[in-house]
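Service request form, structural biology core

Requester: graduate student, group of Dr. S.
Request type: structure prediction, single chain
Budget code: on file
Notes: please return the result as structure tokens.

Sequence provided:
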Amino acid sequence: MYAHSADHRPLIWAVSAHRLTEVFRAVGPEVAQRAHVEVIKQEYEEALAEIARRSERRACDVIVATGAHGAYLRQNLSLPVALVKVGGFDLISAICKARQLSGRVAMVLHRAIPPVLRQFAALFSLPLELRAYQTAEDARHCVHELARAGMDVIVGPGLVADLADEVGLTGVLIYSHDSVRTAFDDAIDIAAAQRHEKSRRTQLDAVLQHLNDGVVAVDMQGRVTTANPAAEKLTGRALRDGLGLPLRDLVPELAPGDTIARGTSERGTVQEIGGKSLVVDRAALVDGDVQTGAIFTLHGSNQLELAVGKLRAHSHRRSRTAKYRLDDIVAASSSMRSVIAQCRVFAEHSDAAVLIHGESGTGKELLAQGIHNASRRRRHPFIAINCGAFSESLLESELFGYDEGAFTGARRHGKAGLFESAHEGTLFLDEIGEMPLPLQTRLLRALQEKEITRVGSVDTLPVDVRIVAATHRDLAAMVREGTLREDLYYRLNILSVDVPPLRERPQDAEALALRLLPAALRRAGLDDDAVAAMLDTALPLFRRCAWPGNVRELENAVERLTMACLAEGRRVPARQIQALLPAAPRLVRGAPSRSLPDQRNRDELAHIRRVLQECGGNHQEAARRLGIGRTTLWRKLKAA
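Core staff response, request fulfilled:
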């Protein structure tokens, strides 16, 4: 009876047509916990036929046999064969048993007589006739010769012992129970190793089947040993039906070349195969220190382009995070503390758009990042864009993305815009007042409908984005002048934050100086005494400065002062510090300039805006009427 399919024990067939079968049956139950042993009492052709018949129901894991019979089975079967081997103890034990029966003893062994056995017989002066045989017919001939020579007992394998009995002699089996146990142990180890290797191969095959990249392996003769479905798809050839055939006959373009001849590797070779451009990697297959073949990895060019695009997008996503929190912003003044508190409320209790107004350098983007990090969207992207840094067409594609073929130079597969990239997060529109009038309509629709359409596409994409906008310009005045859509203004200005300039909050200027200056001086290598002395000299001058460039200008002044200290190699005097600060220090809250050049600039800008309004926001037509180039017009509007 065959082992049940749920039985995980290896199946061993012990094959012999002679008295060894009795030993197999006696020892088999001893290994029953580790293996299922079945005895087949057949030999040679009859044994092969019985093995084939049984294999139709369930193939065994290992066959156990002896001598010439075992060699025959190894030659004619693909199954592993474990041989019952004769040990020194087996020989001595069998000789002693035979000597007890008669003094005329012969020993007949398969293939050859071990030299140590001849030495043993000579050393102990044993009258022992020694013979060897190759085939069953040889064994029969030896036994008949020994019978005619007057031998009484013949020691040998089961075949020899049975032949001795047939001619009226006494046959003594050379194999002991211990030698059979050892053969069964070997068979169990072989089965375990095979199952481990089969499991490993199954896992490897499963991996290969699911790879998008093609994999083809060949042996040292260039014959295909492995191929996965992806390789067939990429090459257009039935590689798995051609296992064992030369690769050059199936895919001539994949000639192993130096990979087989010299064991060298080639990476990133581009080849035309099956009408496709493929990227091919070649590498040697090595087992230990011996090369056993070569492996080819095939990459479709489209797959590589998509992967590169995804990696770039992932890299951008990792960089599009808000680094600053509201608690990171210096707020020593009551006015700035009020701004921080206001932003915290907006972040925690509302998802509406926020408009941040303040002069350049007051930290509007820091506040935007702080609002994002204090909101429910903190785990999603924070993406910032300066609306004044792009031309109209480029800003449109950046914000809304584009489809493949939307314009000359457009990427294959298109590109996601910042609205899509900021989905479920925050989109910070810096310098919103610089957005061209035609684009304001598209932005308004995105805010109203919460959906966008890529450039060159007709399909809409839903987006969930919170808008935080910032500007240093008077948006209400722009509405009156017609350079900003009124409905967009009201969409952006739901919640508003006014950031006071640094000249109106000297406490913050001092607090920033106390944070930035010592850190910069220590990075430059100054000790604590030198840092303290510099603070005593610099802080009074910092307090008096109006900081027209706000925090950004204060940071610049700190850097200049630090470099001056390094250049001088000592503390810089007050007079030199004053020269490094913005234009001769002015009183805080200084009156605005009323100089004639400033008035002329304001009049010119007002005229430009009126003409632009008359032209419906068309920059090209406005530039023509004004008699200036479009680039000049753009620069003058941006400088306002």
